[in-house]
């Protein structure tokens, strides 16, 4: 198995799709110039907009989406695998998907994933989120083949549901992905430990590009894009919330070694639940 360079693109997406495309393209080009052949952008790369009415005015169907179209051109031009962490995509029935895309170096869409778990929470600082009021949840996990290994796709809040990643690991995924727009409050408390836990329990690399900073729609996101090794070590981090890139060399053999040391997947057993 050959090694490869992976990159996270950290963004501060605005309410302008065109501005977000320009920001993403600049950073993607930087990552590719630095040697990255797999580049991941964060959740909601194309727009961060809390107002459902305003969001619906700015998004479109997948086949017309300008961000996806530009990313397909970029992947082909740069000869990279480009992972759009997620885009807000209008569905034919008028609903909205929080959809990730893996684009191959020929510009073709290799895989799609719709975020399964909706962030419907009331936080201690008064923040309240109801993603289910806007987005239709996905119903299927996704494992996609890269030239070097298999990759599992997830988005943000999915990180708190370990069964997704165990299922992907059982299917052979040794790279798990969790592009996100974590709130500042939850990120400061849980971002690193959740990413590291998913890596450790599955003996897999984790690559998670993040949104960061104060956005035009008023939300604050945590940043700190991460690349985690299969032993749970942070091998690369953007240690702030500013836009930028972070890269790391990925050796698929390290995941094989981690699973040999701690064969948790092989040792897993079904069990019954008793309650008294």
Folded structure, characterized:
The structure is a single chain. The chain is an alpha/beta fold. The protein has a single domain, classed as 4-Layer Sandwich (Nitrilase/N-carbamoyl-D-aminoacid amidohydrolase), CATH 3.60.110.10. 29% of the residues lie in helices and 28% in strands. It contains seven helices and 16 strands. It has helices at residues 17-33, 52-58, 66-78, 162-170, 184-202, 252-261, 264-267, and strands at residues 4-10, 38-40, 81-90, 96-103, 109-114, 120-122, 128-130, 142-145, 150-153, 173-177, 205-208, 212-214, 220-222, 226-228, 234-237, 244-250. The strands form four sheets. It has a six-stranded mixed beta sheet. It has a six-stranded mixed beta sheet with strand order 8-9-10-11-14-15. A two-stranded antiparallel sheet has the order 6-7. Helix 1 (17-33) runs parallel beside helix 3. The longest helix is centred in the C-terminal third of the chain and has 19 residues, at 184-202. The protein is globular and about 50 Å long. The mean pLDDT is 96.
Describe this structure in a few short sentences:
With 276 residues, this protein is an alpha/beta fold. It is 29% helix and 28% strand. Helix 1 runs parallel beside helix 3 (66-78).
Shape: globular
The profile of the biggest β sheet is:
6 strands, mixed
What is the overall pLDDT average? 96
**CATH top level class name:** Alpha Beta
Please identify which CATH superfamily we are dealing with: Carbon-nitrogen hydrolase
Beta content: 25-35%
Order of helices and strands: EHEHHEEEEEEEHEHEEEEEEHH
Based on CA atoms alone, the radius of gyration comes out at 18 Å
